[in-house]
Amino acid sequence: MMMNSQDKITASQAVVVLVNYILATGILTLPRTSVEKVKSPDVWISVFLGGIIAIIAAVIIVKLSQKYPEKTFYQYSQDIVGKWAGWFLSLLIIVYFFTISAFEVRIMAEVTSIFLLEGTPTWAIILPFLWIGLYLISSGINAIARLFEIIFPITFVLFLLIALMSMGIFEIDNLRPVLGLGVMPVLKGVKTATLAFLGPEIMLLLVALMKQSEKTKAVKVVLVGLTIPLIFYVITVVMVIGALSIDGVVTRTWPTLELMRSFEIPGLIFERFESFLLVIWIMQIFATFTITYFAAALGLAQLFKKNIQPFIFGLLPIIYIISMTPKNINDLFKFGDMIGNAALYLFGVFPVILLFISKLKGRKT
Amino acid sequence: MWEKILAYIPEWKVFMQGFIVFFIPYIIFKLFNGIVSKQEMNDDDMVKMTGQTTQKNELDYQKETSPKELYDHYTGDFNLDVELVKKEIGHNWDVHFREFNIGNTDIRAAIIFLDGLSDKELIDKHILTSLMGDFSQKDEQESLYEKGDFLQKIIKNEVLSVSDLTEEYDVKQSVGKILAGSTALIIDGMPNVLMLGTVKGKSRNIEEPVSEALVRGPRLGFTETLSDNTALLRQHGENSDLSIINFQVGKRTKKELVIAYVKEIADPNLVEEVKKRIQTINIDDVAESGYVEQLIEDNYLSPFTQVQNTERPDRVFAALMEGRVAILLDGTPFALIVPVTFSMLLQSPEDYYERWLPSTLIRLLRYLAAAITLFAPSIYISFVSFHQGLIPTKLALSMMGTREGVPFPAIIEALIMEVAIEILREAGLRLPKPIGPTMGIVGGLVIGEAAVQAGIVSPIMVIVVALTAISSFAIPQYNAGISLRMLRFVAMFFAALFGLYGVILFFILLCSHLVKLKSFGIPYVSPTVPYRASDWKDFMVRMPLMMMKRRPKMLHTKDSSRQD
After folding, report:
1. 564 residues of chain B, pLDDT tens digit each
2. Which of these, B157, B166, B219, B509, has the minimum number of CB atoms within 10 Å of its CB?
3. pLDDT for B300
4. Can you give the pLDDT at residue B136?
5. Strands of the B242-249 sheet, one edge to the other
6. Largest Cα–Cα distance in chain A?
7. Residue A279: closest CA among A61, A12, A27
8. Do B499 and A136 touch (CB under 8 A)?
9. CA distances (Å), origin B122, targets A227, A307, B193
10. Is the Cβ of B28 closer than 8 Å to some Cβ of chain A?
């Protein structure tokens, strides 16, 4: 069974998959990376603009996928640009998917070894994580979507809870003045902010995996699925900058976790809440890791027209080795930037061209 | 350029680890697949083997029976017929033969019945009295008695006052019925026997079920008699759609099994699936409904129970009205309900009998109890041995203070206590009632006081263990409680290895397993996911009854509305 015909998801499940995919590293690093570029408190406007750009890109991707509602990108790209070019393009995207999944795994290992498990070797942290991912994705998109649906409400509730708790050290003055340095700094940060919204590319496959009756809702799916992370990110950026000020944000590697460390609410069982944030964050990373891992395995299975099982196993060591390649955390962040740039071309430029070509072809026939 | 790339090629150790990453799960996967496929092969072999043997048997049978074909059926010759039956079951101590003359004639007759299973009062008062009484005046033409057919008609129509009466020609079949409690009546000159329904099995009174006590609700429980149990379901209320279909299970010891469902509600595919799975049961004796449960469940490697068992007719009926299917087996008071979802394990019939606010709160309490059962010891371990910094300083200090004299790491400390309390629970369960409380006092004293004073465990650990134990008993389904207690140990090991990260991993692993699991085609985690807002009215919160107008959507019922 290459793709079980029963194994389809609903529109609401697609939304959850999209949200869980997008929310990942960005929660912890977006305040720093964007402030580094913008250098003014107007970061939240950049994030907002970045989200809107991501929505536009996502709508283009969905429009393209809806032209071939029964096929994933790996199958229809060959219809549009011919067998070999389509094959090559699919392979690029597969490489992108498993690279990003390796990146997420490594980021998770780094954060865990700093904040939770000092002294535990990286491989020991990564191994069980990979195996659980393998166990989950071996039963297809439906199981993945259901797991995401369990994770999502937990993330939502805990995130709002800790965001509310950090209100205590929030200073509105840290966010003023609005547009004090003009519009230019805001625009500089848009690219970084857009990269935090990596994820709509999953719609290249997800439209094909959605239930027949709900495929028409795909545009709605990306609108909702991108608005929720947009809100999450704006809240994060506003809370972090409001509490730590832009000078404080730049000097910290994981500003959001630092925010959680910097206040205490006495009287509750827990006085510090970074453990809560880490819990939901690790779950979110797991979500991003599994969906990209699955996307890569599914791509290989469809390219070679084989069963997905051997590819799931075969990708495991590749993901592990890639994740162990960056030597330190700076390498890792550079690696992340590289992936981001690649994504801009792969999913910002290519879908437009492909959509154009397929429109031309459609007119001819 | 090249040097830069070369610098990034990881060490050989990483490649080794990469191989391990791939190899271990691959081996496990192959192993499980191997077990499953081997088992399937065995099953196939079994089928082939049995197929061959039955063929062989048939051949033997034909060979044997061809010369004495007469003995297959009753002959009409009294002595020969009695001999035939005697040859089959006459050696049994509890089979009784009683020979007599019919009416005041010379016609020989005999009744054969099983002591204990047959209703002796019925036999004495109604069968023997009427057969041995004088009924010659009813028919003047005595000669006609010679004609078997006419006699039989008279006996059937005018003499025997028994409601359940059939004719039987085949020896084997009639013997089977005798062994089930029917009485066979052999009359000289008749080519068949009359089977009289005198079955009166042993049963106990209907009592309140011990395993599922309720404060409010009917005080009825199933018994070991199947007909009583189906009667309890019928008695619940008039419902012409309630179908009760029977099967026979067990190759050597045949047992009655019925499935019950409401025709107008239950999904026909589900009913078909249940029937199909019951027909695949291939075992010599089905001793209890637990056998059925294990033979028809979806995944036998899962720690979770995928079939719900209950002793309460009201619970079964409520499930039927939701569109589920019940399976009842003769000889056990435990009925099975399929399909099962995780949320059902934390529900009690009382939730619906009490008002919605208290029921909702109690339900939330049970979810909390389940969470404590699973995670309390593991979170304790991870905080004590990894992240003292994450708990408030004062609490951390007092916890460390109480642990000062304890010589073991937290995992060993926790294991000692948890295993001790499991042993205590198991021992208390098996002991005769008068000794039970003694056990509790001794165990409680040893575990609570002495262990702390001896410095083996810390007082906070005792609190955690006690809380876990109490919580696990707050789960209404006994076997669900066991699964959670079992998984608690797994969680503890994860916590001992990876601290809080391990607990999160365990949670993700557990959820990954749960989302994969299905019970008769219904996802085990529904109604949690996929999101169906209408099913959430009866999930963690039990909404007021007037708002619960629809049956669970996940069951694909034929009639989704609970109202007209």
Report:
1. 777 777 777 788 888 888 888 888 888 888 888 777 766 666 555 555 554 554 545 444 444 444 444 567 888 788 888 888 888 888 888 888 888 888 777 788 889 988 888 888 888 888 888 888 766 555 555 555 555 667 777 777 777 878 888 888 888 888 888 888 888 988 887 888 888 888 887 778 888 888 888 888 888 899 988 888 999 998 887 888 899 999 999 888 888 999 999 988 999 999 999 999 999 998 999 989 999 999 999 888 899 999 999 999 999 999 999 999 999 999 899 999 989 998 888 988 889 999 999 999 999 999 999 999 999 999 999 988 888 877 878 888 888 888 888 888 999 999 988 998 888 888 888 888 788 778 778 877 777 788 888 888 888 888 899 899 999 988 988 888 889 999 999 999 999 999 999 999 999 999 999 999 988 988 898 888 778 888 888 888 888 888 888 888 888 888 888 876
2. B157
3. 87
4. 57
5. B242-249, B255-262, B325-329, B335-338, B308-310
6. 71
7. A27
8. no
9. 79, 68, 18
10. no
SS3 B352: helix
What is chain A's percent helix, strand, coil content, to nearest 5?
80, 0, 20
Distance CA B355, CA B300 (A): 38
Q: Give the pLDDT of residue B134.
A: 67
How far is it, in rounded angstroms, from Cα B335 to Cα B289?
A: 7
Host H or E run for residue B256: strand B255-262
Q: Which DSSP letter does residue B475 get?
A: S
Q: What are phi and psi of B158, to 5 degrees?
A: -120, -20
Nearest-angstrom CA–CA distance, B229 and A89: 65
Which amino acid is residue A288, in one-letter code? T
Q: What is the ipTM of this complex?
A: 0.94
User: Are B193 and B223 contacting, i.e. CB atoms less than 8 angstroms apart?
Assistant: no
DSSP three-state, residue B259: strand
Cα–Cα distances (Å) from B330 to B177, B277, B320, in that order, read 16, 18, 19
Residue B553 burial class via C-beta count within 10 angstroms: exposed 0-12, middle 13-18, buried 19 and up: middle
Rounded-to-integer distance, Cα A93 and Cα A108, Å: 23
- The reply to whether residue B387 touches residue A279, judged by beta carbons under 8 angstroms, is no
- β partners of residue A140: none
Contact assignment for B499 to A117 by CB distance below 8 Å = yes
Coil vs helix vs strand at B96? strand
Per-residue pLDDT, B258: 94
Assign A158 to helix, strand or coil.
helix
Q: How far apart are CA A233 and CA B134, in angstroms?
A: 100
Q: Determine the longest span between alpha carbons in chain B, in angstroms.
A: 124
Residue among A130, A271, A282 minimizing CB distance to B21: A130
Residue B349 · residue B268 · CB < 8 Å? no
Taking the Cβ of residue B392 and every Cβ of chain A, the question of whether any pair is shorter than 8 Å is answered with yes
Cβ-contact A147, B524 below 8 angstroms: no
Tokens 């079955």 locate to B199
Is B523 in CB contact (< 8 Å) with chain A?
Answer: yes
Whether residue A288 contacts residue A101, with contact meaning beta carbons closer than 8 Å, is answered with yes
| H helical segments located in A168-273 | 184-188, 190-195, 203-209, 218-250, 255-261
The C-alpha atoms of residue A184 and residue B403 are separated, in whole angstroms, by 59
Q: Which residue of B has its CA nearest to A311?
A: B22
CA proximity to B233, closest of B213, B257, B262: B262
Is-contact B541 B363, C-beta < 8 A? Answer: yes
The answer to whether B392 contacts A270, with C-beta atoms less than 8 Å apart, is yes
β-pairing, B522-523 vs B193-196, is unpaired
Closest listed residue to residue A128, CA positions, set B280, B499, B108, B5: B499
Residue found by looking up tokens 């304790």 in the block: B380
Q: Taking a contact as any Cβ pair under 8 Å apart, which residues of chain A between 263 and 282 contact chain B?
A: 266, 269-272, 274-275, 278-279, 282
Say what the pLDDT of residue A6 is: 61
Query: Which pair of tokens denotes residue A280?
Result: 């939901």
H and E: helices and strands count for chain A: 16, 0
